[in-house]
Amino acid sequence: MVASKKSRVLTHKQLVTKMLRKPSVKAAVDELNQTEYVILDQILAARKEAGLTQAQVAARMGTQTPAVARLESALATGKHSPSLSTLKRYARALGKRVEVRFV
To answer: pLDDT tens digit string along 21-49?
Structure first.
């Protein structure tokens, strides 16, 4: 008979802390924090400032609510980078504009 080893179940916070001890994971998270998450924060802040729901933004963009949800989700997960054209449409729907700068 093989003795079973009991594994301790970690909370989300404990797992994140454990994973961030790995240099490669920490580097990936730091990169996301400097790029993708900044854009997501700006997008969500602009939508909140405009007082619009995803459905309202979608209507103004001429698309469906799930498309806006996917856009916001994609930025949160880093799995997909929206095109500049899509970001411009989103910005126009909020009464904003997109600026791209190299510094």
So the answer is: 999 988 887 877 676 677 888 889 999 99
Residue holding tokens 């989103």? Answer: 90
Could you count the other beta carbons within 10 Å of the beta carbon of residue 93?
Answer: 21
- To the question of pTM greater than 0.70 for the whole model, the response is no
Token pair recorded at residue 102: 């190299």
Domains delineated in the chain:
32-103 (1.10.260.40)
Return d(Cα 17, Cα 83) in angstroms, integer.
33
Residues 44/72, Cβ–Cβ less than 8 Å:
yes
Q: In this structure, what DSSP letter does residue 22 have? A: S
Would the pLDDT of 12 be above 90?
no
| DSSP result, 37-80 | HHHHHHHHHHHHHHT--HHHHHHHHTS-HHHHHHHHHHHHHTS-
What is the three-state SS of 11-25?
A: CHHHHHHHHHCCHHH
